[in-house]
Specification:
19 strands; globular; about 280 residues; mainly beta
Amino acid sequence: MLDAFTWYTQASFRWRNGDQTVFIDPWRVVDGGKADLVFVTHAHFDHFRPDEIAALRRPDTIVVAPRDIAAELPGPVGAVAPGDAFEIDGVAVQVVPAYNVAPDRLQHHPKANGWVGYVLSSNGVTWFHAGDTDHVPELDAVRADAAFLPIGGTYTMDAREAAGLAKAIAPDVAVPMHFGFVVGTPEDADVFRREAAPVRVEVLDVATGEQTASKTFRGIGHTLDASADEAIVSARGVTLDWTFATNRSRTISDQYGYRADIGLNRLDRKSTRLNSSHIP
């Protein structure tokens, strides 16, 4: 069943549904192709990428998105809200809420925004993409053969909380997502697997390709220029060389004690040997 799915990053997936190609939250799609359907869960940059949607669209591609996003997109767009249910291009769609309830996360995905997850059914298979959410009570009623759940914490439920939702839904297989890129680490998948038992957990490999990215580390201003193979971080003559892997966090240090952790998107001080003359 999971052979039909490709994971690109965060919550970005492609679903090969027979002759039909479906994307959800497309970001860093490295192998091209065009979409028949595109589903978007919410407006955050790591889920809603208008440039990538435009690259995937044909004139007849249909995009399904929450109302705030749908208003920004041209072409055939279906605006949805939690509780909607319909069929589109042979795919039965149930729209479910995605929001935070943990006090320290309430500002990230407010319930009032009307952001969503999707339960998609076609050709005898039902799968659930939760979007960015906590374990909210409405989701306990979801039934799916495969459940794709965020586990990274900070902005969504963490691995243990996601495991509780997996056990409530009781899918044939649970797939962790939204970890190892912006927040969360590969170890979170191990926690999720252990805590979700007896639900079977499968971790998908991330699709890679020759893509280039440029990123500024938060708060310090170091710039990352990365290919799929290697990257260099430079700061006032201090250069850090390291291997860049799209599916794992990598931590390196230079002689001054700079530490670059791409999975957590930060550059911070590891050693007291680093002094102010090395900080831009």
